Amino acid sequence: MNEKQRLESQQVKADNSADKKSEKDYSKYFQSVYIPPSLKDAKKRGKEEVEYHDDFAIPEVFRGMGEGKKFYIRTYGCQMNEHDTEVMAGIFTALGYQPTNTVDDANVILLNTCAIRENAENKVFGELGHLKSLKLEKPDLLLGVCGCMSQEESVVKRILEKHHFVDMIFGTHNIHRLPQILNEAYLSKEMVIEVWSKEGDVIENLPKVRKGKTKAWVNIMYGCDKFCTYCIVPYTRGKERSRRPEDIIQEVRHLAAQGYKEITLLGQNVNAYGKDFTDIEYRFGDLMDEIRKIDIPRIRFTTSHPRDFDDHLIEVLAKGGNLVDHIHLPVQSGSSDTLKIMARKYTREQYLELVRKIKRAIPSASLTTDIIVGYPNETEEHFEETMSLYREVGFDAAYTYIYSPREGTPAAKMQDNVPMEVKKERLQRLNALVNETCALKMKEYGGQVVEVLVEGESKKNSEVLAGYTTKNKLVNFKGPKSAIGQIVKVKITGTKTWSLNGDMVEEAAAIEVE
Ligand code: 5AD
Ligand code: SF4
Predict the structure, then answer these.
(1) Does ligand 2 lie within 6 Å of residue 328's CB atom?
(2) Boundary (domain end) residue, out of 443, 464, 487
(3) 187 and 221, same domain (yes or no)
């Protein structure tokens, strides 16, 4: 921070200083203030073993820090971020804060950010613009930026230069330090920045306040070592490191005992689970084989990299039971040339062979995917290969994106020779195919009876209930409110492109089940 920025940021903080003096002095518990993030350091993948910490505890001195105060967290991006928000909500609660659903009555606001594409970042900068006036009205409000964007040097620099009213920035490896960071922000007149570029540890026993009572997320691993050339995640989330199987199994068992009906196992690349263990030979297939024995109705996982999807895993998934028959398998492109430039390390043929293997072992499996269009060097022929692969696999649905250059990644240095109009036109053509295929697949459900895990009232109509099938199809149906949180049978009476309509049926009436 230069002198000008320091003075400017002190000005905003000076307004809060009277309030800050009334806080207790916890400064001896704070060890570091400004550690700038570095994408270059984040790329280093050393040989050091992952450190496991299972002694997380909120220091006695911080308990009660949040008494009479409210927190609000806005989450952007993937399920990993959603789950990090649950951990931060757990820490806030342990500190005595209450949650609130509006920014207006919050004493602390956190933006848990996503860096995956430029538009995700623009949303956050837009939101910071809105929050500036709130911060000016309420100088003692604490405003923080965390999540993936905080791991980027350019973002930290931009916030320092243009958004001095932000009180704290902390990274994805610093979540467990939230009590110390908050305390420092109350005491300090300067923006508190704590972003470690380290490869990352595994911290157990973090408190969590889960968003729902039916579905829960469980991290099985953190980070990514794949370094696909477009992707910022290996830099923002650190190296691949797996939680110990016994910790995961214990967490899933505990959730089952609490009545949760569905668990989604989370990792940037769950198929790389266990690769980092030095003392045991234990991979994702082994973990799934143990988790399927736990008495809980549905187990999902996300997200998979085709390269690490091994035969043992397919064999275990084919055992079915609570392992659902839906697999999200990002392909990114149907052209081997583009896949090579993306450094995905598989070809079109290898991907198709994997799909054939999965379908042979699990004939009912539904597959969904992620696709990027308009990659540097993508020709019309390459794009057509993506379209033909989509048709050949017969995906149930896809998330589709225009390539967005991310500073610090290899692709950002490539010459992007695909004009934006061409990228947009390709995205439209792909989306038309995705919608058409999805609508056709949905039609097949007409008249069938499916099992639905009921999440609550439908967003549009409180008279209607909504939930998901094992294949993750949204079903809106008429049924009693007592069905919320249960798995019930629903007869499909109408199909749309993205959802199904139906009526709940009694057990005895269920003849055909998905
Ligand atoms: N541009 C566009 N899409 C991207 N994704 C990841 N990085 C980028 C990028 N730079 C997409 C990939 C990934 C999904 C989570 O986001 O399809 O699977
Ligand atoms: Fe990004 Fe590739 Fe890792 Fe997925 S596997 S998080 S796309 S680098």
Answers:
(1) no
(2) 443
(3) no
